[in-house]
């Protein structure tokens, strides 16, 4: 599979001379499977450039793509109203999001009610099946519509935007997926819920023996000095052996001390997690809007020095460290 960064900036777009090298558009990642299928992760402003590129690549053909949302903060959704392929009749776009309102505890409550047995717990084997069914039930309670669809409709409401989502020409199909469910189509995509204000879905994209884990907007455990417990352990287990871990590197360790609870992480924690998980490459993304190219370059230098220290001064290490640049591409497998 191939991946390409179309948006690497966190929080708000930052165009201009000082961000030309690493990019000013907010989060959007493209994954093209070995079969040539199109997957998109997040719809920050980077998706508008991707849309223009897809219009050229699919000229005279129809596009059938899958879009996954890590979460619904503006910097991950605000490019969608300007994603041209969504307005072309004949194109098909499946939009997936996790369902933040459904937790395992919710499901256990539902099951206890259904079974009339207070003590029975869901066993691991039937959890996936139940998650799918129960998500449908819970999502529809009180007549609530699909969460991703509701958000897209809300975003494209007058007076904020003149074209409503129902007026887009492409066939849009919105799907909430539960934690543990795999969307399979040659490539398998699934997520684990991670730590971020309002929640975030950390997707793993797997094809044959290869995997990419997309951990944007992840905040590490600020109280735990070790990465072998809590949320960090959850991410390590999820990312274990991946070819690439894409990781939130918004803050320096010093700035993080002032921004605990804001939902982002540092290169130090990213490297600790990547080493523990045995991933081959870590790519830091979601660059802070105040980080100029010079600052990001300095962060990259500091990250490599930190890795060198962690390796006790040995130059050769199984982990490679990069900071994402808008337009950069990687081939896996
Ligand atoms: Zn963000
Ligand atoms: Zn966020």
The chain-level mean pLDDT equals: 88
Structural class: alpha/beta
In CATH, what is the homologous superfamily of the largest domain? Ribonuclease Z/Hydroxyacylglutathione hydrolase-like
- Biggest sheet, strands in spatial order? 6-5-4-3-2-1-14
- CATH topology (fold) name of the largest domain: Metallo-beta-lactamase, Chain A
CATH class of the largest domain: Alpha Beta
End-to-end distance:
7 Å
Following the backbone from N to C, one meets helices and strands in this order, namely EEEHEEHHHEEEEEHEHHEHEE
Helix content: 25-40%
Question: Any ligands, ions or cofactors bound here, and which?
Answer: zinc ion
Number of helices: 8
Task: Report the sheet with the most strands, covering strand number, pairing sense and barrel closure.
Answer: 7 strands, mixed
- Give the amount of beta strand, in percent: 15-25%
Low-confidence stretches: 117-128, 134-144
Coarse morphology: globular
Please give the radius of gyration in angstroms.
20 Å
Number of strands: 14
Number of domains: 2
CATH architecture call of the largest domain: 4-Layer Sandwich
Oligomeric state of the chains in view: single chain
What this model shows, in words?
The protein has 333 residues and is of the alpha/beta class. The chain has two domains: 2-99 and 145-331, Ribonuclease Z/Hydroxyacylglutathione hydrolase-like (Metallo-beta-lactamase, Chain A), CATH 3.60.15; 106-139, no CATH class. 29% of the residues lie in helices and 23% in strands. The chain contains eight helices and 14 strands. It has a seven-stranded mixed beta sheet. Mean pLDDT is 88; it is low at 117-128 and 134-144. The structure holds zinc ion (2 copies). Residues 10-11, 73, 75-76, 217, 286 line the site of one zinc ion (ZN).
């Amino acid at each position: 599979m191939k991946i390409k960064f179309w948006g690497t900036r966190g929080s708000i777009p930052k165009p201009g001379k000082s961000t030309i090298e690493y990019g000013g558009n907010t989060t959007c990642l493209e994954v093209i499977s070995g079969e040539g299928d199109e997957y998109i992760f997040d719809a920050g402003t980077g998706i508008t450039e991707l849309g223009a590129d897809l219009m050229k690549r699919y000229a005279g053909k129809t596009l059938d793509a899958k879009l996954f949302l890590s979460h619904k903060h503006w910097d991950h959704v605000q490019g969608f109203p300007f994603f041209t392929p969504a307005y072309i009749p004949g194109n098909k776009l499946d939009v997936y999001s996790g369902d933040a309102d459904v937790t395992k505890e919710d499901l256990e409550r539902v099951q206890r009610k259904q079974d009339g047995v207070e003590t029975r717990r869901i066993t691991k084997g039937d959890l996936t099946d139940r998650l799918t069914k129960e998500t449908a039930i819970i999502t529809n309670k009180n007549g609530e519509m699909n969460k991703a669809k509701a958000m897209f409709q809300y975003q494209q409401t007058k007076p904020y935007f003149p074209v409503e989502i129902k007026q887009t020409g492409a066939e849009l199909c919105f799907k909430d997926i539960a934690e543990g469910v795999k969307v399979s189509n040659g490539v398998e995509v699934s997520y684990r819920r991670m730590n971020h204000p309002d929640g975030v879905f950390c997707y793993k994209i797997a094809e044959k023996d290869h995997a990419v884990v997309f951990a944007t907007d992840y905040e590490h455990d600020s109280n735990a000095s070790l990465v072998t417990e809590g949320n960090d352990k959850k991410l390590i287990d999820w990312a274990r052996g991946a070819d690439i871990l894409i990781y939130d590197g918004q803050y320096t360790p010093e700035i993080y001390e002032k921004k605990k609870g804001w939902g982002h992480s540092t290169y130090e924690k990213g490297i600790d997690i990547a080493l523990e998980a045995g991933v081959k490459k870590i790519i830091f993304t979601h660059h802070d809007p105040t980080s100029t190219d010079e600052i990001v370059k300095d962060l990259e230098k500091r990250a490599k020095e930190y890795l060198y220290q962690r390796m006790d001064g040995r130059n050769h290490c199984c982990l490679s460290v990069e900071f994402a640049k808008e337009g950069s591409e990687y081939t896996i497998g």
